[in-house]
Amino acid sequence: MSHEPSDRAVNSAVLASTNFIRNIIESDLAAGKHAARRWSGAPGPADQQLAGALDPARIRTRFPPEPNGYLHFGHAKSICLNFGLAQDYGGRCHLRFDDTNPEKEEQEYVDSIIDAVRWLGFSWQEEPSENQPAGECHLYFASNYFDWMAQFAEYLITSGHAYVESQSAEEIRASRGTLTEAGKESVYRQRSVEENLDLFGRMRGGEFPDGAHVLRAKIDMASANINLRDPVIYRIRHASHHNTGDRWCVYPMYTYAHPIEDALENITHSICTLEFADQRPFYDWLLERLAEGGLLQRPLPQQIEFSRLNLTYIVLSKRKLIQLVDEGHVSGWDDPRLPTLVGARRRGYPAAGFRLFAERVGVSRSDSLIEYSLLEDTMREVLNESAERRVAVLDPLRLIIDNYPVGTSEACFAPNHPLKPELGKRAMPFGRELWIEREDFMVEPSKGYHRLYPGSMARLRYGYVVKCTGFEVDESGEVNAVHCDYLPDSKSGTSGADRYKVKGNLHWVAVADAYAAEVRLYDRLFAVPSPGARREGDAEDVERDFLDDLNPDSRRVVGAWVEPALKLAKPEECFQFERHGYFVADRVESEEGAPVFNRTVTLRDVWTSKPSPIK
Ligand code: ATP
Ligand code: MG
What we know:
The chain is α/β, with parallel strands linked by helices. The chain has helices spanning 4-16, 20-31, 73-88, 107-119, 146-158, 169-174, 193-205, 254-264, 280-292, 318-326, 341-347, 351-361, 372-386, and strands spanning 60-63, 92-97, 139-141, 162-165, 214-217, 232-236, 250-252, 269-273, 302-306, 388-390, 392-393, 396-401, 409-415, 425-431, 433-437, 457-460, 465-473, 479-486, 504-506, 509-510, 515-522, 555-562, 574-577, 581-585, 597-602. The chain has 13 helices and 25 strands. The structure holds adenosine-5'-triphosphate and magnesium ion. Adenosine-5'-triphosphate (ATP) is lined by residues 64-66, 74-75, 77-78, 272-273, 308-309, 316-318.
């Protein structure tokens, strides 16, 4: 079933909240900061029309992934923030691929990112308006701006703000200085504009090998901010690019490219994670120089940083995720245990759950580690609303009702959703032999056990009350069938059925009609809150590897018996299996009429009470 019902609730929650970024936006809007912007004109750097016209009272944000991996839960926070702000303030959010690095990027990643952003419920198509034709696509590629970036670099050279450096990478690093010591000016810093222009032209022309020269901004080698000590802005790379092919052999550095991308797209608020805070002075320096030269119009985009999402029990670094996939610790990028958005989708985490979660964790500038159980609780909350109830027996044991007529069957009626009577009831066939959970029977009951044991009475949910009369064991001594008698006047929903007061209330499916389903019981991928971190009691020299903290029980496959209605489950349909948790029909491995199910999350958190499987 879809997750639509909760969408509205989530959006109104977003509108109701506030945070420091909203405060900045609201005061910019109140001051009319962007109202002075010329939004129309022909495309081109002097009046950036790339992104089209926009009502000056609106904002523009962007989500700028590098297409070098699959999106993870951290990206979901950034997507919800950027697209959410644009939605709330009637602005626009661009999806922009930051594809300035020729070596690591692939179409596969571009496609998966587009899918993931759409799945989260966001789009970059505008409603038609006076200035915006229907269906115009605000999907951008940074590599389309390479010409302008190079032209801007030439302007920086001409205006004395950039020079060609011919020292090696090694030498540049060695002369950059430290936090306490100023850097040393390069001998090449005094090159004339003509020489710089000539060399940069020849770099572009392919005359030099990789690493022979770089282009550096000319700022201040003594700056307290190391990022302002003449940062490299262009380097030579003889490499093919997925979009521009072999047209270029010089490529802009990320720190140079990014502010220009924002400015060309008329981004008003450029929101990024805190590690870029030290780069902000360079971001501003660069855009100021280009605006001074008339190449960009003011007001310029403003960079605003927030702290990245960190969660317990998972890793969110692309490098570690790639390692998990490449070394086969998981089945692929969409393994339901992986904190990627493709993985989450297969796991059954609803997109509305991510939006609500992003809202709950909020945005701030202080580093924080969020409990994984908060994410799970949010998913449970959304699924509790949206998922219909069904019955599945995951660890089956045969129950034989000896006084029930052989060869007959009847219908019992179970509500599809206890909170939504309008969703009606469905019929579940009842018969003489049923599957119940193995843990719902004990030969010798422990104290407080109210389910079945010889002599006890319990209710078969939506059916009859039964009295346990005995059990059978196999050669190994394991119980393989339980016997009982039913009370014919105890059927749920019939008058007088509640005269029987029993504490146990068991779920079941009829043996004759049950569907044999493969069910994957997924659990957390890591068994400790901070995978790879040193633990209390570790000796000084102990170094841990995050792979040692993998949870050995993160995936268990069982052969379950489920109620016949589940045979018709469509891929991605979510259910609550009563007493067990939330499950989804796998979108990859289910076949028509033969779904397999993934456990999304249990009904209750078991992690806070359970001992870690790793010592
Ligand atoms: P990683 O650090 O995992 O390799 P990244 O920052 O290199 O991720 P990008 O493709 O550059 O990945 O990220 C796109 C956007 O997502 C950036 O604006 C980045 O700040 C944001 N982002 C990445 N990780 C997180 C996170 N954990 N929390 C919030 N935002 C994030
Ligand atoms: Mg990055």
